[in-house]
Design a protein that fits this description.
By secondary structure, the protein is of the alpha/beta class. The protein has three domains: 3-172, 24 nucleotide stem-loop, u2 snrnp hairpin iv. U2 a', Chain A (Alpha-Beta Horseshoe); 185-311, Alpha-Beta Horseshoe (24 nucleotide stem-loop, u2 snrnp hairpin iv. U2 a', Chain A); 323-480, 24 nucleotide stem-loop, u2 snrnp hairpin iv. U2 a', Chain A, CATH 3.80.20. It has helices at residues 21-31, 73-79, 291-299, 428-434, 447-452, 468-490; strands at residues 3-4, 10-13, 58-65, 85-93, 97-99, 112-115, 130-132, 142-145, 167-170, 192-193, 197-200, 214-216, 219-222, 237-240, 245-253, 267-269, 276-283, 288-289, 304-307, 310-311, 323-325, 338-340, 343-345, 361-363, 366-369, 384-387, 395-398, 413-416, 421-425, 456-458. The termini are far apart. Residues 1-9, 102-111, 431-437 and 477-491 have low confidence and may be disordered. Keywords: Signal. This is Receptor L-domain domain-containing protein.
């Protein structure tokens, strides 16, 4: 018997373990507050269980339709006619269905699951169904596999399905774009991938990726022999769904010394107000980012979980921006757009602070200590601080007796190697005036701005006092090492 099913429904996909349907249903019920009268307890749909399907607009269920389903399409449609929202999922496998609009949920492995349906030729209604990832920070994993008569080629760019960023279509009559697992010498004309780029513990032939322009999904590269990402030379467009999840992961690639990802226009995030994250971890000890690459990542609004890198000697293409390497406030030029090195403002430097009026990027720590400054207005142009040395805090405000306001209200983001620490200590007037608010240096109006400027505050003005001599010794020793290395190369 061939079955045709067609209905419109919102589906909240819940992660579950394919095959253990009773456990899957329990997971659904545990994840949401539910109306007991709207729970379908039978999972498999047949002529016996359909009688117990809840007549609710929102139904909590794992619905399984397979070769044992002894109902016509009209009977199934009638049984589900009152449902417009499903919390759970639908599995269609080894069925006799020819046309339908059905979803499944298997967040960790399968997601939307349509498999081995020999007569299936039409799933066009999939583009009319809205998928929500439930309580997951990432997207719904969708797989349409081994349906020999099904043409998926154009459907994946239509309707709600076009928003999917973790879509696998293999073994069908025609599939959507290319699957990374299928990219080989016979697929070098691929211009799009619909389930991201996931290269895990493989030896990569980079020539197979040279024509990819569109990536839908995360880029996850682990345990490879890659040295950089220049093989994605045609990459221009990137679509993800991320609510504070990692979309760019470079991890455990021991030969990777450079980034070299071509510049893309932007990252389109289908999660409303979602935050996209990056992680660069356990790469080659010499892995470095040029300043232009770092600014590119900042422009993409891509904060880091870990950034185990250093700055390259070559700053890259920074356009007309003026780069200054910091040695002291006295020697700093007047027109710096970018300052490279830990910015130290100390006693006697007060009159030189006007040199910072144009500074937009600080690639180093910000240290203000023992000054007579009353405010930090000269830092108003600075939007980003990036420090790749976590041996000492990225921000240090210490013993500035006349400072009345330590707010860095115009800072857009703080990026560190891993630790996110600030020391605020012995700034007497500031502490007396603002009390407990002395540890809030930034004005955050959105969840994103709060996330990218978050710091762990220490020091006497915020809590336990810090041994300043120890911090100063670490900083001084590192500076001495840098000078020694520079002298070594000079001579």
């Amino acid at each position: 018997m061939c079955i045709s099913i067609c209905f419109f429904v919102y589906i909240f996909l819940i992660p579950f373990s394919l095959g253990n349907y009773d456990k899957d249903l329990k997971h659904v019920l545990d994840a949401y507050k539910k109306n007991p009268d709207c729970v379908f307890n039978y999972t498999h749909v047949n002529s016996t269980t359909i009688k117990f399907f809840p007549q609710c607009e929102m139904v909590y269920a794992i619905i399984v339709i397979n070769s044992d389903t002894d109902l016509s399409g009209a009977q199934i449609k009638n049984g589900l006619k009152n449902m417009n929202t499903l919390v759970g999922g639908i599995i269609i496998e080894n069925s006799n269905i020819t046309s339908f609009s059905i979803l499944t949920s298997e967040k960790t492995r399968d997601g939307l699951f349509i498999k081995n349906n020999s007569y299936l030729t039409n799933v066009s209604m999939l583009s009319n169904i809205r998928l929500y990832p439930g309580n997951s920070p990432g997207d719904c994993v969708i797989q349409v596999k081994d349906n020999k008569l099904l043409d998926m080629e154009k459907l994946c760019d239509n309707g709600w399905l076009a928003e999917s960023t973790d879509l696998t279509t293999t073994g069908n009559l025609k599939n959507c774009g290319c699957q990374i697992s299928e990219i080989s010498s016979s697929a070098q004309n691929c211009s799009a991938t619909y389930n991201g780029i996931q290269l895990l513990n493989v030896s990569v032939n980079t020539s197979h990726f040279s024509n990819i322009k569109l990536v839908k999904g995360i880029i996850n590269i682990q345990d490879t022999n890659l040295q950089n990402l220049s093989f994605l030379k045609s990459f221009q467009y990137w679509t993800v769904r991320s609510d504070k999840s990692i979309i760019l992961n470079l991890q455990n690639n021991p030969e990777m010394t450079r980034f070299l990802l071509p510049k893309i226009w932007n990252i389109e995030n289908n999660a409303p107000d979602g935050i996209t994250l990056a992680n660069f971890e356990n790469l080659h000890p010499d892995f470095c980012l040029s300043l232009s690459e770092m600014m590119f990542l900042l422009e993409l609004n891509l904060p880091f979980v870990n950034l185990q890198a250093k700055f390259c000697e070559d700053p890259g293409d920074i356009g007309e921006l003026i780069l200054c390497r910091f040695s002291s406030m006295y020697d700093l030029p007047n027109n710096c757009d970018i300052v490279l090195g830990d910015l130290k403002i100390e006693k006697g430097d007060e009159d030189d602070c006007t040199k910072l009026n144009n500074m937009k990027f600080l690639f180093g720590a910000l240290i203000v200590q023992n000054t007579e400054l009353t405010d930090l207005d000269n830092l108003a142009a600075c939007k980003h601080i990036v420090s790749l040395n976590d041996s000492y805090p990225v921000i240090q405000f210490i013993s500035n007796k006349k400072l009345k306001n330590l707010e860095l209200r115009y800072i857009y983001s703080i990026t560190t190697r891993g630790k996110r620490e600030a020391i605020i200590q012995d700034n007497d007037l500031f502490k007396a005036e603002l009390g407990n608010q002395s540890c809030q240096l930034f004005q955050s109006y959105t969840e994103y701005s709060e996330y990218v400027t978050r710091l762990v505050y220490t020091g006497g003005d915020c809590g336990a006092r810090v041994d300043i001599k120890q911090i100063s010794t670490i900083s001084t020793n590192l500076s001495s090492i840098l000078v020694t290395v520079l002298i070594f190369f000079i001579f």
